[in-house]
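Hi team,

Filling in the usual template for the complex we talked about on Friday. All components are listed, including any nucleic acid strands or ligand strings, so the model treats them as one assembly.

SUBMITTER: L.P.
PURPOSE: interface mapping
COMPONENTS: two
RESIDUES: 746
SEQUENCES:
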Amino acid sequence: MIGVVSYLVFFTTVAAILAIAVLGLNLQWGNTGLFNGGVVAFFGAGAYGTLILGGTPQPDHLGGFELPYLLALLGGMAAAGALAWGVGVLTLRLRHDYLAIATFGVAVAFENLMRNAEALGGGAKGLRGFERPLREALGSGFLYNLAFLAFVLVCLVLVWRSLDRLVASPFGRLLRAIREDETAARSLGKSPARIRLTAFVTGSVIMGLSGGLYATFYAFVSPQDVLPVLTFQIWAMLIVGGAGNTRGAVMGAFLIWAAWTASGWGLSRFAPVEAQLYTGSIQYVLIGLVIVGMLLWRPQGLFPERLVVSQSGREGARSTQGERQ
Amino acid sequence: MTRNMQRFMLTAGTALGLTLGASAALAQDCTTRIGAVLPTSVDWGRPIAETAQFVVDQVNESGGVAGCQIEMVLRDTQVDPKVGVDAAKALVDLDGVQVLLGAVSSGVSMPILTSVSVPGNVMQMSCCSSSTAFTALAREGKTSGLWFRTFATTGVQAAVAAKVAQDQGYGSVAILYKNDDWGQDIAKLTAGYLEALGIEVTGSVALNDGQPSYRAEVTSALSGNPEAAYLALYPNEGTAAVREWLSLGGTQNMILANSLKSDDFRQNVGLQYLGNALGTDTASPRVDSADDFVTRYTERFGGAPNGPGLANSYDATMIALLAMEAAGAGATGDQIAAQVGRVTDPAGTPVTADGAGFAQARQVLAAGGSVMYQGATGNVRFDANGDVSAPAVVWKFTEDGSEEVQYLSLTEVDTFMASMN
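RESULT (copied from the run log):
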């Protein structure tokens, strides 16, 4: 019984960390229409930033600044933000698939940089030597995982709530206006370039937070953590959950991660012995089927975006508009 | 009323009897689970898992471990750290395993070790993770003695590669390596050893996975006009790179890491080009049990064990099961880990790596003795950091596989390595 609880705590922690990244992507794609194909670069910048700033000194690479944990985490987020700002200034004038290709390239470049620049991030061996915060007080067992889960959930709720407020605010309306018709937004005197950059950097900082929490949880990060498959996983979560809806983003993260892990568990438990060796491949097929099925039968996601009628469009006002048409 | 009572007593009695009988039967053929986290969705990962399962089958046939049959629960890592760690956590928490076999990639084994095995007090034995980071972690005391690997540290292979270059009289060598933790480590170590022997390293070039062509990398490696090439690559990119290397006029003097000891590589490159290729490996076919391993493996799978990590996976599984036998029923991960020394004791009774050897070990251990496991990679012995040093062989390709050219005993390897430091 304690085993099940312990596993669920572990599972929820990872799912909640991924959900934060999905929320970041939701701001970029769901609300602003920016196709970020390089989620993993910003996630990775947060992860590496946090560990480099908060880790103990290591002989063969940068790091060991031993900053207090929250400062290190903020530093990781700042690193993700800085990267996003640089990338954004260069690429945000690109549209749709071009932006996707450019950001994907950035992510591949980031992984290769980390794999090869040993002095920076330990190379392919990865970055270690990070002491988890409060480990001495809480030990390294179940209690620690529980406390860390609480911290992750607080982060998730904070991000979730503030994004909800942001999207409901006039700024959120502006984001949607740019998503739907940039020329129209510009004709109203708005500056789409600046707003797009703001949304891109904000979303990336949130991904950086997710990466920082992820690296803290494992106390380790290596180039294998920042492979393009993570970008794909985050996108699948957003698409299944429903782009443009924060609840959808969070639910999507939990559902896809549950499907991803439960399929492996279920196959190892129930598949016949002779098929056990092939469960890995079967699992890939199952996950692919779920995503393709979603795209075919419910492309708007489980929780589609709820279109908000802004204040000027209240009952009375809307009917007047209708008459004018 | 009385009749009802009687019937109740009868039913209750029968139920009680059945329960007792059932639990007695359970005690007889109980099952102990061990976990395996291996990349079964990758082509070369599947044979590693098959080999582990092969060991479990043999041990079960010989009577199981501590009176119980072993069930190996196999999970795929997808070579994704998140997925691997989750699988390991599920094995520990939901299946209650005390022993984890795996993973293959160091980038997956490391987070499993730090966030599942050590906090969960579970023994982790990897067949194939080679990163030097594990040694550093163990030295800091952060593995709690729960970490072992049967893959000899890259140092041995690197040193033997340098020795081959010296013996062959090569004056300059170009290094081509797989761009991952293993490749980076071994390339750096080999370059160091070569230079220590006064052999020039004309270039050290990293190859990334899955590129359609390695022309640029190969050209860059050729630019220094090396007399020989050292290849620390896997069969896929190894084949592609060697083809380009030869077609661009590169030398056929090649030194190969054990990862290229593969039938695919031999067939796809062509044996006629591999006449001057010498490989290194840490396996030690000096003991009969290692030959037996090849024989048994061939019988079981219809082909010789030509693939990376197979002998290591075999030994990892067998040693883990021996340690479980030594620790007895219901032992926890740290108790099992503490017994690893007793089953790989150089002064112990030698046992072979098969069902009969396991049965023999069971008797010796029950009598309080210790055993020396003679495995597929030789007489495995772990140091304080859970690393193995190993004797080494130099091999070359033949018509139907590979054959040994030279054997370097553990002492020879150690002396040679010490002479360079």
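MY TAKE: Chain A touches chain B through 46 residues (CB under 8 Å). The radius of gyration of chain A is 21 Å.

Thanks, L.
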